[in-house]
């Protein structure tokens, strides 16, 4: 059999490389929930497991000082902080995935919908996200910060003061106070495009551009009220029962943010997992989360690839540093 001349072999190799798609993994960022921070044992453990199981580069993105700001920085401000950080991260310039934990999902969605000029988000994986709101302030305990939060809430959750000084007030949706919620709540009504006179087609366009939206609800979740908010399910206006499935809500039927568009395209995964709030097992993590972090099939036009650093990194106000 006659061999191809060297020049022909080189041309054939380049042709095959350009035409046939190759697999390349893009990085992910993890956004933690309330009363937490990137260096807390639980968040570190989840981040490091995701990196280990998927083999891709991952970053935990810190908001301000983490624990304190997760409680008392308004969510719109938290979203702006993360927006500016991801725009500065060269590792994300070709796109990235988001993994959200509880309240961190709303910050992540704020980045998707509100962040102008940011790199594209491909897949969004949500664990215990209060996407449709919550009818009760997240369980806290008796610590000093919780006492402060309780005192603020007693002043009225839909007052200007509480909205500007307590992060959860931005997604506390009381079914028996919907007019006040729509009028005074400063975050979730915007994020979910609930305000008729402020409905923004750009938010819908950006959210519906996701390749995959993975919504994981935990069966024993007693932090989110109702737990179905993890799927965009919620109570009807004016009543605390029954719980509407996501497809029964106006947000879905009117397609305010593109959830129906995504679902009809087969890009929404409604996952029911055992366990409590964010209580994901290794088995479920590998089954429901890791596949959306791994190989993204892309057509490469360059032979240059940076090696994947399989380590947890934290993005704080000063930039990147390796977690110890």
Structure description:
41% of the residues are buried. The protein is built from 13 helices and 10 strands. The N and C termini lie far apart (58 Å). The protein has an 8-stranded mixed beta sheet, sandwiched between helices. It has 324 residues and is α/β, with parallel strands linked by helices. The chain is globular. The model is unreliable at 12-22, 297-311 and 317-324 (pLDDT under 50). It has a domain at 26-134 and 200-293: Rossmann fold (3-Layer(aba) Sandwich), CATH 3.40.50.1820. β9 (312-316) and β10 form a beta hairpin.
Any descriptors?
single chain, 324 residues, 8-stranded mixed β-sheet, two-stranded antiparallel sheet, 10 strands, globular
